[in-house]
Amino acid sequence: VANYVMLELGQPLHAFDNDTLEGDIVVRHARAGETLKLLDGNEAKLDDGFVLIADERKPLAVAGVMGGFDSRVTDATHNIFLESAHFAPAAIMGRARKLGLHTDASHRFERGVDPELPRRALERATELLLAIAGGKAGPVLVAENLADLPAPAAVTLRRARLKRVLGVDVADAEVARIFTALGMQVATTADGWQVTAPSSRFDIEREEDLIEEVARIFGYDNIPTATPAGALTLAIEPEARIGELALREQLAARGYYEAVNLSFVAADLLADWGFTKRLVSLANPLSADLAVMRPSLLPGLIEALRHNRARQQERVRLFEVARVFGEGDPPLETPSLAMVACGNARAEQWGEPARTLDFHDLKGDLDALIAWGGEPQRWSVHADGLPGWLHPGRGARVVRDGATVGYLGALHPQLAKMLDLAADVHVLELALEPLLARRLPQAQAVPRFPAVRRDIAVDLPETVSWSQIEQTVRHTLGERLKELRLFDRYSGKGVEAGRKSLAMGLILQDASRTLTDDDADRCVREALAALEQSCKAKLRG
């Protein structure tokens, strides 16, 4: 009968053998160390988090979960005591799982039961018992705390909100009819309705719950289908700036795969790279491995490269476009580009022998990106001022308009060994905005006059970079110099120690006339004079 009523009305009941009870029935918390043998024969070890049904001497049942073995109803039972109660979900939740149980009663009480059902269920069970088994009904004993019983609250439903969410006008009379048919009390207001749900509908807590009920009864098929229409605002993309998507596509075209890493990294990993200052630490990190905002994209990219190398991917090309973070109030966020590469310079093929990637391959990728901006003369690379994570002899500092914007080169051997990486791993990291800046193209007439070439070889200190030479010559000759080509480098016999010989071709052209031999020779003399003054160069005989 108890199980039948639970399925019929949704209210769990429990029957005790009345002759086993001693004194008054109480509801109380379990005492520490208290035990109770349950109906399934297992002994439950209880603590003060459990609610018990008990008599004056002993516990009888774990409230909302399962009854006790000693007070169970058997074939020898003559008098029964029926218990019907309402328990708050919070008082029952998790108690059955703690005992390794999942009962019909706990399933219902954890989700909520109508607080007005206990008396009705008790009367229904008594009716069935009398009709089926006979006997005589005893008195009904009630113990309740009305102040703690849930009371249905009026929920406001706005007419405008209903239309906005459903996208359809529902007549006021239809809305009122729906709520009334669901057993709810409805009061019309100036802008909508005040709705009070019956005690059995404890799921009605907010305006959206009422809107859901209207949609359910009104019929989802009666709501017209409409394509969402939102205002699409095109992002402003200045012509003097390369778009980030275009940059990503360019890198993909050069054989790189985009990686997306977390913005949080481990402080220990950053310490291996030498990043110990101006870090942005999280106040409440998810874990110790995600405790610091990344000051560089390279540690994360190198971890991705290691992951791929560990899976037999010998040739790896990765890039990431994202923000890096530095100390500040608020913390500084700088868009950045990072690239890592290792393995062969080119994918395996029959047409040429395999060659391991080196500094110049990555420098070539950088040159291609710089040339895309149309102003390569504003960029240069220098061998000084390198960070500790770069190889001191195979690294470079990238400069634009005199300001350092990034670094590239091979990883420092000690760092590579610490990270269990081969020596062929090369990296690059740049501030993103300088790379995205570009010169607006300007139409120029096809030259009417021929170009003239002059080749020179100069002897100069080993420390002078090609970018310094190129800037000097371009600044000196201006628009007359169309191209400067380096075609030979020599050091050894005939060249002093600490110096080198560079051979270069000067492509000269004038837009207004044909250059004579005297004009070309004068340009060469001007270039040599400038190189001698700024680079301590001298013409080789």
Explained architecture:
By secondary structure, this protein is an alpha+beta fold. The chain folds into 4 domains: 2-148, 3-Layer(bba) Sandwich (Phenylalanyl-tRNA Synthetase, Chain B, domain 3); 154-221, Phenylalanyl-tRNA Synthetase, Chain B, domain 1 (2-Layer Sandwich); 244-436, BirA Bifunctional Protein, domain 2, CATH 3.30.930.10; 452-539, Alpha-Beta Plaits (2-Layer Sandwich). The protein has 16 helices and 25 strands. The strands form 7 sheets. It has a 7-stranded mixed beta sheet with strand order 12-16-17-21-20-19-18. A 4-stranded antiparallel beta sheet has the order 2-5-6-7, with no helix packed on it. Strands 23-24-22-25 form a 4-stranded antiparallel beta sheet, covered by helices on one side. Helix 1 crosses helix 5. The longest helix has 19 residues, at 517-535. The protein is elongated, with a radius of gyration of 41 Å.
Q: Which SSEs are present, and which pair or pack?
A:
Layout: H1 2-9, E1 13-17, E2 26-29, E3 35-37, E4 43-45, E5 51-54, E6 59-62, E7 66-67, E8 80-84, H2 89-92, H3 95-98, H4 104-111, H5 117-132, E9 154-158, H6 159-166, H7 172-181, E10 185-188, E11 192-196, H8 207-218, H9 244-253, E12 257-258, E13 264-265, H10 267-273, E14 280-281, E15 292-293, H11 298-309, E16 316-326, E17 332-342, H12 359-372, E18 379-382, E19 390-400, E20 403-411, H13 413-418, E21 426-431, H14 432-436, E22 452-461, H15 466-477, E23 481-490, E24 499-508, H16 517-535, E25 538-539
Parallel strand pairs: 12-16
Antiparallel strand pairs: 1-8, 2-5, 3-4, 5-6, 6-7, 9-11, 10-11, 13-15, 14-15, 16-17, 17-21, 18-19, 19-20, 20-21, 22-24, 22-25, 23-24
